[in-house]
Amino acid sequence: MNLTIQVTESDRKGMKQHFIISSQYEYSFWEMTYTLEQWSVNKEAKKVIG
After folding, report:
1. Which of 4, 17, 32, 46 has the fewest C-beta atoms under 10 angstroms from its C-beta?
2. What InterPro entries would the database entry show (predicted)?
3. Is residue 37 a part of any domain in this protein?
């Protein structure tokens, strides 16, 4: 079964954009892990929680 026949060009572009964005998040995750970088959201959450 070939599912690519059913996909429009617009859908294909959307899938490509989602793939690129998810790849950037994946890279950022591993880069932060490697460099032991802290996520700034934790600091902001502590301010809100108190």
Report:
1. 4
2. Haem_Oase-like_multi-hlx
3. yes
